[in-house]
Design goal:
Two copies of one chain form a homodimer. Chain A has 520 residues and is an alpha/beta fold. Chain A is built from 21 helices and 20 strands. The first copy, chain A, has a seven-stranded mixed beta sheet, sandwiched between helices. In chain A, strands 3-2-4-5-7-6 form a six-stranded parallel beta sheet, sandwiched between helices. In chain A, strands 12-10-9-13-14 form a five-stranded parallel beta sheet. In chain A, helix 1 crosses helix 2 and helix 14 packs parallel to helix 21.
């Protein structure tokens, strides 16, 4: 059978289970585009900007539990996708970047689009593979897949010179699924130490990260441990996915601001760290500790993110003598009242929690507008909560795109701040192109509200007009309804609780993309 | 006098002439924001996305002839700005990135926004400076300024940990203007060789780059040389700035596609290369040469971009015995007829050239829609033509922003393809916020039209529906009129020559931002 290098690469990846490619191709990737075309089962999703493609691949992996591919054009394509790769990298999400490069001979000529591609891709990848031969592209696909699936998940970038992609191969065979690395074992001594810590007196907190929070089963077992020992389960402020809502074990979230997190953890005597690391604040502030473990609190590192968190939890249950099949305490469904009067973020969450259907996906990057959500989300219908994991804003819309591609039978809600939404607003067009079932709520407060908070906290002095202008995204106010319609997504504005409620109810009762601009 | 580290840095830069800062700040840059606030003469321009900030700094420098600063937030801020930094780097535009980093102690804690900042910034900078002490920030500013002003111009990134920015300094003094590097001398032997080449028989071409094309005076002198010797002057396909239009020496542009460029240069016996390098194609294609110098053509490298192109031109005039004060042949103004009938790109250019006022700035990234422009631009009113220099699309709108900031009394026209425009569409909001005098024309062909051309050229086989979908940005068609209005820029659509003409005329007769969606 004759095939091109691009065919060998993509058919090998497809055989391993890579079924979606989020693409923004250029001339050097044309062979990859037509190779995807020749694979019936592989879905290609066009993004108008690479940050949409990389964020969507992240969202896809969080729901599908396996990597998607991105298709990126040379160094600038990686640059445009870098911020959302950063977010995925911080969270340990599996992802495979297919990056086209100039043909090898052409590279030496230093054409205008030549750049330090390995530098920019390497700076955000766990693993960078530069394909050397066309014949080796099946093996390169296998290496890339195994790398991406290395626990908890890795950003793998595969650089493909154009001449390898267009090479004709005779008798090439598709690479089989490679052996996949397993999570590293948890030390028995760490389990013993954690059991002792949980049996000790005083306030005990189990801090958990992304490898734990997305799995309803793990959270129920932790709920049993909490009920039996009096320990509290607290999740990292931002994790890839949290299984939440009625019928699931509740879980608290670590506060975002350092002072509030320190208050929240105050008096903790024992901290058991599971699938994450000891907590640190997002930013440093003059005269505030960045390390959030209270003085005198003992820390037990039970399992790092790349370790076997399942075995760690089983070890705790066994060491504490808890029946893993006992009924864990779970949240009950509470349907909030319909909101009324002038709209604010809390009323939006009230309405979202009223209407979000069973098994929905919530991609949330609401920044300061998220603060009211915790009153409603724990008792909403069961849903998966996806968050901004690496702090680089502009992730929520692309993640919603990818999540909706991975979960076509589930409703996706994207709740997003207006400032962050503008980084990757092109996502809306992909929602329209693919007719994705996503309801987007934009919290339009016309401000980088979080920076107004931070400005005071970092002690930057009395801000004048020019400084305040840098934190204000009004003048002119953006009209997200028009922007959405301009990209093919139907949209409407709400300024009262009643209006929001009507729009949210209608949007949850239809399929396809819709945007609500919540003027708050 | 007491000041912060941020004050010392910014006041030093301001003293050297850095008067504009294109900013997208985050928490780690709050001290820089308030330090700018305290400098009356420094203009801060907010961008909703960093690619707008970096592209705007590029456009500013092309018109102002000196660097602006950008203000970028950590590694992700650099990532978002990377593609337009690539474009500026390829063109040798002076630019200073001020990049906030975590406080030094905080960095060690590996907080969520920690990344390989030096890696991502270093991969697109000529020079990366990491500030080490608050007291040294004046000297760091001087190093950064001198680095940026190193001929022909360099991307300089200055990384500033937050704790240095907030440090209080007693008795610090603002750094004076450093000595600036001069262009490297041109070898006498290179001039002699070039003079001999110009005196030789056969077809002779002087290929010129960005250090030459932006200066009306240099182009006139080259026009004298062309008239005296019969040599042709051809500019690189894409340069930072070309002084064009009536009253200026005409200049041909090298064709974009390799085959067309090879045809254009066919039969050249002598190529003299001035302020650029011997031509290569953008992309490689199977069985087509990437090196565009015809077989048997002798190449004389007269001056590289970093060398003294003025001295090189004077050397030619002297060696050829040409009076530099003779009257050079210049283009005459031709006012095209008003376009009529169904709109196409050529008719848009016809109308643009009719109405573009004297001394306008044209930021052009029209891709396939630029092909008709050359019939009208050489005889338009005199203007500066700014182009996409590094091949990474999404530069034209940001460059228009920065150019308009640098040239507030000049009309800026931004002529842009629809696909490229969506990469940095957030530029429109900054145009509205700053009330910039920019008329934007979007050539809405609803396609990555150039990729449809390239798909055949790279021999990628018969494209199927999925492949063609990746090159098509219709379904849904974007409505740029709505998108623009959603960002505060008034806009209208044209589908006929008459409609375009009416809109273009009106837009050129008023001040402030306006967008015309040319449906072609």
């Amino acid at each position: 059978m004759s095939m091109t290098g691009a065919d060998l690469l993509l058919q090998s990846l497809y055989g391993m289970g890579v079924e979606a490619c989020f693409a923004n191709p250029g001339t050097s990737e044309m062979q990859l585009v037509t190779a995807i075309d020749r694979i019936d089962g592989m879905r290609s999703v066009l993004a108008l900007f690479e940050g949409v493609a990389t964020g969507a691949a992240d969202g896809y992996a969080r729901i599908a539990g396996k990597p998607a591919a991105t298709l990126l054009h040379l160094g600038p394509g990686v640059g445009n996708g870098w911020a959302n790769l950063h977010n995925a990298r911080r969270a340990g999400v599996p992802l495979i970047n297919l990056i086209g490069d100039h043909a090898v001979d052409h590279l030496a000529l230093d054409a205008p689009l030549t750049s330090d591609l390995d530098g920019v891709a390497g700076s955000v990848s766990h693993n960078l593979i530069r394909a050397e031969t066309a014949e080796g592209l099946g093996e390169a696909a296998a290496r890339a897949y195994a790398s991406a699936m290395t626990p908890p998940g890795q950003i793998t970038s595969l650089v493909l010179p154009a001449d390898l992609a267009w090479a004709e191969l005779e008798g090439a065979t598709i690479a089989p699924m490679p052996p996949l690395p397993k999570p590293a074992a948890v030390e028995d001594s760490a389990i013993d130490q954690a059991v002792d810590a949980l049996k000790a007196g005083g306030r005990r907190v189990i801090l958990v990260g992304s490898p734990v929070t997305g799995d309803e089963g793990k959270l129920k077992k932790l709920g049993l441990i909490a009920a039996a020992t009096g320990a509290e389960i607290i999740a990292d402020t931002f994790v890839t996915k949290t299984a939440r809502g009625a019928g699931r074990a509740g879980i608290a979230k670590l506060q975002y601001f350092a002072e509030l997190a320190l208050d929240q953890l105050n008096g903790t005597a024992q901290m058991i760290v599971l699938g994450t690391k000891a907590p640190v604040s997002f930013f440093a502030y003059p005269n505030v500790s960045s390390y959030l473990v209270p003085d005198g609190c003992a820390v037990t590192q039970l399992a790092r993110p790349e370790q076997d968190v399942d075995a760690a939890i089983e070890g705790l249950l066994s060491g504490l003598g808890i029946d893993p099949n006992a009924a864990a305490p779970v949240a009950e469904r509470v349907v909030p009242d319909a909101p009324e009067g002038q709209l604010d973020a809390v009323k939006c969450w009230q309405s979202i929690a009223r209407h979000m259907p069973d098994n929905a996906i919530l991609s949330e990057e609401a920044a300061t507008s998220s603060f009211g959500a915790e009153a409603f989300l724990p008792t909403a219908a069961p849903f998966d909560h996806l968050q901004l994991t690496g702090g680089s804003i502009g992730q929520g819309l692309p993640v919603a795109v990818g999540a909706a591609v991975a979960g076509p039978d589930r409703k996706t809600i994207c709740a997003h701040g207006d400032g962050g939404a503008m980084y990757t607003i092109q996502s809306l067009w992909t929602m329209a192109r693919e007719n994705l079932d996503v309801v987007t709520v934009i919290f339009a407060n016309r401000s980088y509200a979080i920076l107004n908070v931070e400005l005071g906290r970092v002690g930057a002095g009395n801000p004048g007009r020019k400084a305040l202008d840098m934190l204000d995204i009004g003048r002119p106010d953006m009209d997200f309804t028009q922007i959405a319609k301009g990209m093919g997504v139907d949209a409407a504005k709400a300024t009262t609780g009643e209006e929001f409620e009507d729009l949210m109810k209608a949007a949850c009762n239809r399929r396809g993309p819709f945007l609500i601009e919540a003027v708050i």
